[in-house]
Write a structure and sequence with these properties.
Elements: H1 6-35, E1 54-60, H2 68-75, H3 78-81, E2 84-90, H4 94-102, E3 108-111, H5 114-121, E4 128-135, E5 140-144, E6 160-162, H6 169-180, E7 190-192, H7 200-205, E8 211-215, H8 218-225, E9 229-233, H9 234-238, E10 244-249, H10 250-255, H11 257-276, H12 279-286, H13 295-307, H14 319-331, H15 341-344, H16 348-354
Parallel strand pairs: 1-2, 1-3, 6-7, 6-8
Antiparallel strand pairs: 3-10, 4-10, 5-8, 5-9
């Protein structure tokens, strides 16, 4: 890795601190508002009610087929079996999910672990700790406007690509892959980061960009409409990456270890189901979570994720994975200093769940 000039390091450090400070400030500014709103239910919460059940609000970064094992745990009643009455809320962005956790609007967050690094490095006292890793590969795909035979990443040179927001895992993994293939993300192509998450597929259909980086079901939808063609999997080309994990404030974990354990147990049951069933069977189970997607399309998407080994067999967030995450952040210019694995990750709940 090349050495960074001192003035460049200072600039990157300043930007990193601003990112963390902005996230914490947002939480403080809207915390009072959220506190008065009560807990939301977006219509996809799990079954499970009763006087003995522990109410838990989970805020997910996005509602995506990419997270199939979690929805299996919901639909198969595993959270209810573990004594948890789960309310699922979609945050539509890691910054919003983190804000919900920091302000106690959510008990548990599900998002990219880079957000926990940002808030920790920004000086948050009651920082957010990762306790279960769900996905081990990126879940997005590169979509071309025209069919491409024998795709290679150097085909992106000189093109316009619809990308993700700076500092987010989708964009950082994309740039990580480009660099692995000898491509300069800033000089060799134009990455448009001005479009909101979730709107890039529509923009691509409208004629913007030569390529776009899309999650499912948007990638498959573009293919179905004839507006695009999946030419590469970022999950396959990036290798194993700790893409999304479950986390909670240090104080919540310390005060509710039995809840975190039960929650992790339910997730592990979902992981076990996915590991031992076919994409067709998984699709049928999680269909209620994605009523707008027909079963055939749902099966196609799950098969795509299944075949690239998207989901871990367990939920243990290994130190090697955390180191890789920090490497990606560093290469993206988002990490001026390393943060300790032992502070931001606990594996005891995931290890117990496997037993």
């Amino acid at each position: 890795m090349k050495k960074i000039p001192c003035n460049s390091h200072m600039h990157r450090s300043s930007r990193f601190i601003q990112k963390a400070a902005a996230l914490v400030l947002t939480a403080l500014l809207i915390g009072g508002t959220l506190a008065g709103c009560g807990k939301q239910n977006d219509g996809v919460s799990s079954p499970g009610s009763g006087s003995s059940a522990k109410e838990v609000t989970l805020n997910e970064v996005a509602h995506s087929i990419f997270y199939a094992p979690m929805y299996v745990a919901i639909e198969e009643g595993y959270f209810k079996e573990e004594g948890i009455d789960l309310t699922l809320v979609t945050g539509f962005g890691a910054d919003k999910t983190m804000t919900a956790v920091l302000t106690d609007e959510a008990d548990i967050g599900f998002m990219g672990s880079e957000s926990t690094i940002y808030t920790y490095a920004g000086g948050t006292q009651d920082y957010v700790v990762n306790f279960a890793q769900l996905t081990q590969r990126a879940g997005n795909f590169l979509v071309s406007r025209t069919p491409v035979d024998n795709f290679s990443w150097d085909m992106l040179k000189g093109t316009d690509v619809l990308g993700g927001r700076a500092g987010g895992m989708p964009e950082m993994v994309f740039e990580f892959i480009l660099k692995k293939n000898g491509i300069d993300p800033k000089a060799d192509l134009n990455i448009d980061q001005s479009i909101d998450f979730g709107s890039t597929a529509a923009a691509f259909s409208g004629g913007q960009g030569d390529f776009t980086v899309e999650f499912e079901p948007h990638a498959t939808s573009l293919e179905a409409k004839g507006d695009g063609y999946v030419v590469a999997s970022l999950g396959e080309d990036s290798g194993y990456v700790p893409y999304t994990a479950f986390s909670a404030k240090q104080s919540y974990i310390e005060a509710n270890p039995e809840v975190i354990q039960s929650f992790t147990n339910a997730l592990q049951k979902g992981m076990n189901y996915v590991a031992s069933h076919t994409p067709e069977e998984i699709a049928k189970v999680i269909q209620p979570q994605f009523e707008e997607t027909d079963l055939e399309t749902l099966t196609t998407i799950i098969t795509r994720y299944y075949e690239q080994d998207t989901w871990k067999e367990d939920l243990i967030f290994e130190e090697e994975s955390f180191t890789l995450l920090q490497n990606i952040l560093e290469e993206a210019g988002e990490l001026p200093k390393r943060v300790p694995y032992k502070d931001l990750v606990t594996t005891q709940f995931a290890e117990n769940a496997v037993k």
